[in-house]
Amino acid sequence: MGDTRVSIRVKHGAKEMELECARKDTLLEALSTVHVFHIDASCGGKGTCGKCKVIVSNSNDSNLSKSELKFLSKTEIEKGYRLACQVKVNQEMVVIIDDQEKDAQIEAAHEGFKGSLEPLVKKKYIELPPPSLSDQRDDVTRITDTLGIEELIIPLSLKRTLSKTLRNAGYSVTAVYSCSTLIGVEEGNTETENYGVAVDIGTTTVVAHLLNMYSGKIVDTVSGLNRQKTLGADVISRIEYCIREPEGLKTLSDKIVSQIAEMVTSLVKRNRIREGSLHSIMTAGNTTMMHLLYGTDPEGIAAAPFIPVDLQAASYHSSEIGNFPFDVTFCNLPAISAYVGADITAGILATKMHKKDELSLLIDIGTNGEIVLGNKDKLYCCSTAAGPAFEGAHITCGMGGVFGAIDTISLEDNTIKYTTIGNSKPAGICGSGIIDAVSILLKSGVVDFTGRILEADEIEKPTAKSLVEKHFAEGEGNSFILAPSSVSETGANIVFTQKDIREVQLAKAAISAGVATLLATAGKNTSDIAHVYIAGGFGSYISKESAAAIGLIPAELLDRTESVGNTSGKGAAECSFSRENYLSCNDIIKLTEYVELSSNTYFQGKYMEDMTFPEY
Amino acid sequence: MGDTRVSIRVKHGAKEMELECARKDTLLEALSTVHVFHIDASCGGKGTCGKCKVIVSNSNDSNLSKSELKFLSKTEIEKGYRLACQVKVNQEMVVIIDDQEKDAQIEAAHEGFKGSLEPLVKKKYIELPPPSLSDQRDDVTRITDTLGIEELIIPLSLKRTLSKTLRNAGYSVTAVYSCSTLIGVEEGNTETENYGVAVDIGTTTVVAHLLNMYSGKIVDTVSGLNRQKTLGADVISRIEYCIREPEGLKTLSDKIVSQIAEMVTSLVKRNRIREGSLHSIMTAGNTTMMHLLYGTDPEGIAAAPFIPVDLQAASYHSSEIGNFPFDVTFCNLPAISAYVGADITAGILATKMHKKDELSLLIDIGTNGEIVLGNKDKLYCCSTAAGPAFEGAHITCGMGGVFGAIDTISLEDNTIKYTTIGNSKPAGICGSGIIDAVSILLKSGVVDFTGRILEADEIEKPTAKSLVEKHFAEGEGNSFILAPSSVSETGANIVFTQKDIREVQLAKAAISAGVATLLATAGKNTSDIAHVYIAGGFGSYISKESAAAIGLIPAELLDRTESVGNTSGKGAAECSFSRENYLSCNDIIKLTEYVELSSNTYFQGKYMEDMTFPEY
Q1: Last residue of a domain, one of A466, A498, A530
Q2: pLDDT score recorded for residue A151
Q3: On chain B, which terminus has fewer CB atoms closer than 10 Å, C or N?
């Protein structure tokens, strides 16, 4: 390393990397040389958007630029935040990219598509016989004859450029088509350049996979917190926003459309693919998220009898959706009901439970909890208002599964040990940590089966006594200190309280009563279940043992339980890669019966019953 | 009639009417009280558009307003033109509406549809079961189930308003749909309000019929000269304009789209129909006109091997077409080739020649001459570069079939007698007059079978001698004076010249050689033909006898010849009224073989041969 080169170390969640750059580069330029880290910088490094915030280990406050003083809060400055575009790399430094928006902890499914690749948007290179006086077929007929697709639908905008393209290309072109619609005609052979994006629109998190339709590979993944979150944490509050604000629906719709646009732009840029080679965007999400994407009125979803505008699979040109910077076809998976959405259809598809002889149980724990039970003959599903407790909402120190969250908790020598996402200072506790916490408190005997934190004089077990001694915080309500203020990112204790336990009780009761109701409806017993799939971003990180310990899933099914991750994104990708998969979603819909819990007395009884934890 | 009321007499082509109005009204206001006359006044009477030109019999020049001085030429002012919005009706007056744009002489087909009415766009009143917890179907499914149409396609824009409409209407709505696409959902029962427009886009004339889809009636018709005419008289010159000018195609496309928009607006307004009850616009026209409407590149049509972009029947939402003020579906009939367009498909449909056992011959004489020969087993067609002679182009005093044109000529006591359109002063001669003129000159013996006007010493027949004496104009080239300057509108002699006869020879040779070529291709003789249909605006007014006299149609077929008028507009209307008709157009296309004349040696020989007239 000579005088003119400088080395920087970059940490981004679990990723860590050593970079070299020119001494005169800005940090933004340095980070942009590799495509591992995505730094948002919509102003292009002019210091006018304030988006490229990173933590610089040896930042010097006195060097802050005007735009940094404008865009960084006092707290951020104290934490070492800088704008990457304003930092000249003139010495070795450690950079932490710590952006909740861009770093929601979602596993990327960088894997190849298994199955017969028959992408939703196909490309076919064709050499057309050039026209002559003895072959006067018009351009459109010449193409449809060669493609062998009768009644091909061609948008007028494409017809307007068709003849020029054919003539420029000497009649050797690549047809881009989806089903019986011709989407594009490109000069020469571009069969290998065929990309799509599969988007899972979660209430909390949005994940976008870049798909190479030619290779069947998921090339790259970006994710971020759903930007609608600021206008409502859950589906009901967003629907209420639509009802309350005259332009509410448009505002929410614009937010998600522009977020997807930015994610797609980022995927296209950092993978250096030709913009015109992106042809489709397949979306899945809960029914409300799909309404908000398309700008269809979600009001009917919010109140009984819970009627959505539309549950069908559909496809629209991007121009119909709104202001979208790519000329692509938007498709979505079909949904089952107002509260069992296209994300669950995708989950059924991804787990293939609709093709199995044995009984499977799918539990998707996100902001809501959706449950599906069944096999190739019949599927039952329901949605429980599990609430977003497992996503950290309504939990005193709860947070999403992002950088700094306590994600696992264990007991070692009667002392609480934890890990955090990104191995950073603890900032709060996320879903998997919450379940671990309750599990430990239950099993140790600090909390009884009713969910009550026992008084000191009630505690018998030595482990419990020791736990209380070390972690009970008299001063902070009835709570346990998981991480003291001295080590926390926030400078305050990270605690877990009696109230938090009550929230978990409500959530787990909703899920387990939902499972029991579906079993009763199907006339089956727990022991009949051959597979349990825990889905959702959260589902990937949960400790199955802890989940069974608190009664979230039946303990006897532990050996048959697997985490399947974000099946919504996976299912959407599988539909993009295979028209057969996409079409089979309609079979899933026909196979699936929705069980409405709000009017179900069996569920209500079970819900009260399941409020208690297992006894230890 | 009291002091405050004034009577005006209005002449508009063949229409004439007495109106009464308030003494303070402007002439524009007076004319607008009846829906018989359409006065263009896009500025709404402010004097800023200059479009409401009319001739006022007792106009007083000294009263001309500033805007009249701006918009009226010196010649127009001399002829008595005024802007209707600037004229206060303070005395009795005679008003002549003399606008070529609005008064092209086209017969209006104000007749009911004969056949099974199954309009392209249907309306069906449905009462949907309201949703409940035991019927949670989404809005879209609720409609599709009740309509009984599976896989109904619903545009996103409609889905966005759907739930509000359903709820406002208490689930009693009228579905508007075309095939498997839902176009609209209207509150309550609006089945009776279902209108469409059928448009024939001729190179010279555009005709629009307002169709009542509920009654199957053609309600009203407007027509006007194609506004693209100023940028090219025929299809080739318009295509050349597209090639020459960078924005040429867009300019021509905008012209026809805005012209149709204005015609539709006029039909909607003067028939006082609700704008939202207009759902479809069915178009027919030659292949170039269809390209120019849709903005598809016509360049390939102009030169061998004559390849259009598209000949198919198609439908587009108006927003795809361009800036169109109605939310409607545009449809077009399919075409046969670059020079046998959708207008001819419409002609075949209208004459039903594709369903007959006997052999029929269809000759559509417009700016080009298209010929179809055949029966239910097989149709042959061709297009001849007949040139626009029969539309008055390239004829010394030629003009379209509009106000002031000499449309019939006869001999009385060896003197030329004529009639004019609108019984006005002669301004020129249109197609039917041209054919009469040649017929008279031929039969009288003034012109020999080679088309030459004989020298005085060669003339033998007394009629001819007398004709030459009375009408031959030595001073004005080898020409005949049909109407002397003293009576003409233009102040110059209306003449018919040797050169004009040559133009007619070329045109009639092209047609008759085309007929002969199709007969030869089909292996048939003239005597096999059971029906001859003369179509085109011009075809309605032609004297069959004169046409036979000059050899335009075989004399032996005279008893089997009928004028069928504007079959393009008729066919388009029939397709709007009946999906079966629309679909049968594709059968017509399959049944029809295009015969390319440009490379046909038989045609070329026949063309030279048929240049001569019959001998008398």
Answers
A1: A498
A2: 84
A3: N
